Amino acid sequence: MEDQGNSDDIATVFISSALHDEICDLAARCWPEECCGLLIASNQSPTHIRRIVPARNIATEPRKTFEIDPQTLIDTYRAVRGRDEAVVGCFHSHPNGNVLPSTTDRARADVHGFLWLIIATDQSGVLQFGMYRAQHQSPAQINGGETIRYFRRCQVIQSATA
Ligand SMILES: [Zn+2]
């Protein structure tokens, strides 16, 4: 990757090995349904995932999609405000083993810069980890057209500590 060495590099995300394992366990346990939840970081280090908040998947078809319990969203956004933390992303699993964001994921990625962690699972457990950052290209940059949304794949660096 070209732009490394920049501490603000938005394409690199750090996660502790313990947290990585916690997410994998959760995703494997939820199969064949999709697990989901939120990624939390401190305001000082938004690219270092500090903790996760697992949520109930309240989708009517949890084997095909996910919907984070709105009460968890309300509680979590309220809690981080008082702790100098931020909700920097969300995670969910793909029980069909596909690590790429779905068309639905793209349509729902309405916050520029938000992280989307996708855990590909099958009956044997976790296959792959895909971290993406939602990008919105503003109309000005593309001559007054509609905003383009896409996901930029991020490099995940596992560390012994967060
Ligand atoms: Zn998805």
Describe what you observe in this structure:
With about 160 residues, this protein is of the alpha/beta class. The chain has one domain (about 20-160): 3-Layer(aba) Sandwich (Cytidine Deaminase, domain 2), CATH 3.40.140. The protein has 3 helices and 8 strands; from the N terminus they run βαβββαβαβββ. It has helices at about 15-30, 70-80, 105-110, and strands at about 10-15, 35-40, 50, 50-55, 85-95, 115-120, 125-135, 150-160. It has an 8-stranded mixed β-sheet with strand order 3-1-8-7-6-5-2-4. The longest helix is centred in the N-terminal third of the chain and has 14 residues, at about 15-30. Zinc ion (ZN) binds near residues 92, 94, 102, 105 and 118.
Tag the structure with descriptive keywords.
162 residues; Cytidine Deaminase, domain 2; alpha/beta; 8-stranded mixed sheet; binds zinc ion; 3 helices; disordered N terminus; 38% strand; globular
Beta-strand residue percentage:
35-45%
Briefly note the structural class of the backbone: alpha/beta
In helices, the fraction of residues equals 10-25%
From the 3D structure, determine the CATH topology. Cytidine Deaminase, domain 2
Largest sheet: 8 strands, mixed
Question: Cα distance, first to last residue?
Answer: 23 Å
The averaged pLDDT comes out at: 90
Bound molecules: zinc ion
The CATH level-2 architecture is identified as: 3-Layer(aba) Sandwich
Global shape: globular
Strand order of the largest sheet: 3-1-8-7-6-5-2-4
> How many helices?
3
- CATH C-level class: Alpha Beta
Order of helices and strands: EHEEEHEHEEE
Low-confidence runs: 1-8
Structural domain count: 1
**What's the CATH H-level superfamily name?**
Cytidine Deaminase, domain 2
Number of strands: 8
Query: How many whole angstroms does the radius of gyration measure?
Result: 16 Å
